[in-house]
Amino acid sequence: MKILVANLGSTSLKWRLFDCSNNAERLLHKGGFERVTDYPKAIEDCLAALKAAGVITNESELAAVGFKTVIAKDVTGCVRLDERVLSAMAAYNGLAPAHNPPYITGIKLFAQRMPTVPLIGLFETAFYQFAPEAMTRYAVPAAWHAAGIRRWSFHGASHKFVAERSAELLGRHDVAERVRRLYLDGGKSSLNGAAPLRVISCHLGGSSSITGILNGAAIGSSMGMSPQSGLPQNNRVGDLDAEAIPYAVKTLGITIEEAQRQLSKEAGLKGLSGLSNDMREIAEAAAKGDAGAKLALDHFVSSARHWIGAFFLELNGADAIVFTAGIGENQADIRAAICANLEGLGIKLDLAKNAATRATETVISTPDSAVKILVVPTNEELVVARETKRLLEHSAH
After folding, report:
1. Burial of 384 (0-12, 13-18, 19+ CB in 10 A)
2. What's the rounded Cα separation, in Å, for the pair 188 and 185?
3. Secondary structure in 3-state letters for 297-359
């Protein structure tokens, strides 16, 4: 079973082709194009690259094309991308303006190019559909909630990968199996009285979120209604008081639209540092004494510790804290700052192991640390391929 996973941006197309036959999960090909101005041609070029590599001879060999879709009104999970779902995505374009419009356009073009190949979307919100209601609600009037104003949360594919892989690394194969079946059985499978597994997953990158995971299922996340929330993002604000926007509109004499633009383009790490939205550049500048860079670094670390602490309390401790994504996997100094002075909570980082670890699956806590600290490189595309395969197999029965 060959599944093509397409990652769509407003001017980019990236892909990975997986062979998911039987129990195999082989990456057959990967590639991508930047600065795309002609999407139909980019799709043709993608198929041509797959054929030239000898991994397919015709697009009819594809069992499906999977997409890491973000958010849709009243739709989540892993679903077929029909007109109803695309309309639901369009209804939430304003919540994910950098993601939904290009995905909708690209999906329609894929449908035109290969009408007989199933198109499947795994929504980023899917991993949170079983979270306790108290963790997904805002304290807003009932009509607001009915209109969709709630904590949807994101990075679901990454956190699901961490949930499954960390369970395997910790020897909890019962939990790993529960994660695999999560979307098929509605999160209802039981561990039959086994001890709980408590994991705090830290997806730290250009876009960051922290999720509490109990027995393989999310109980909540730092992100809320849109990817604009939670930790400071690369150039998106993160958490912000609801009164800040109307105050800025009145005081600065700007429109709501301009306020939204600034908060999504000029805020976050870029706004704090006044320098860059790249944490690597910020860390280098902070090490040289740049005050703005140090502020951005300190704010990011403080926000991460805040959310780790929140889920540590909610879970009554943690069996593991996992770092993943670009910053989490590669920047040892950020991991060290987040884990500093937490020995009283049983969190002990091995400084030498941490410093030597870059984008490698590794335990970086000391042997006597009550809480394991792991680095687990994420693989969101593989999760999309896995869930696409499960949906196709389940639908066939």
Report:
1. buried
2. 6
3. HHHHHHHHHHHHHHHHHHCCCCCEEEEEHHHHHHCHHHHHHHHCCCHHHCCCECHHHHHHCCC
For residue 304, give both structure tokens: 């991460």
CA dist 327 and 10 (Å) reads 23
Nearest 10 degrees: Cα torsion 88, 224, 385, 40: 50
Superfamily assignment of 156-380 in CATH? ATPase, nucleotide binding domain (3.30.420.40)
Which two three-digit tokens encode residue 132?
């306790």
* pLDDT computed for residue 188 by the predictor: 81
Give the ranges where the chain is alpha helix by DSSP (H).
Answer: 39-52, 83-91, 100-113, 133-136, 142-146, 156-169, 173-180, 244-252, 256-265, 268-273, 279-287, 291-314, 325-330, 332-339, 351-356, 380-396
The dihedral through the CA atoms of 99, 102, 104, 109 has a sign that is negative
Q: Report residues of the chain scoring pLDDT below 70.
A: 397
pLDDT at site 397: 66
Cβ(220)–Cβ(226) below 8 Å: no
Q: Provide the CATH number for the domain formed by 2-123 in this structure.
A: 3.30.420.40
List all residues 6 or more positions away from 8 whose beta carbon is below 8 Å from its beta carbon: 67, 102, 103, 105, 106, 107
Strand ranges of the sheet holding 362-363, from the earlier edge strand across to the other edge: 217-221, 209-214, 198-203, 320-324, 372-375, 362-363
Contact 18, 5 (CB under 8 A): yes
- pLDDT digits 0-9 by tens, 32-84: 999 988 989 999 999 999 999 999 999 999 999 999 999 999 999 999 999 99
Q: Is the pTM of this model over 0.90?
A: yes
Residue 353 tokens read as: 């192991």
Characterise 359 by phi-psi region: left (phi > 0), alpha (psi -120 to 50), beta (else).
left
Phi, psi dihedrals of residue 10, rounded to the nearest 5°: -65, -30
Rounded Cα distance, 282 and 290, in Å? 9
Q: How many residues does the chain have?
A: 397
CA–CA dist 296, 113 (Å, integer): 45
Positions of CATH 3.30.420.40 in the chain? 2-123, 156-380
Alpha-carbon span 303 to 169, nearest angstrom: 27
Contact 377, 329 (CB under 8 A): yes
- Are the beta carbons of 236 and 263 closer than 8 angstroms? yes
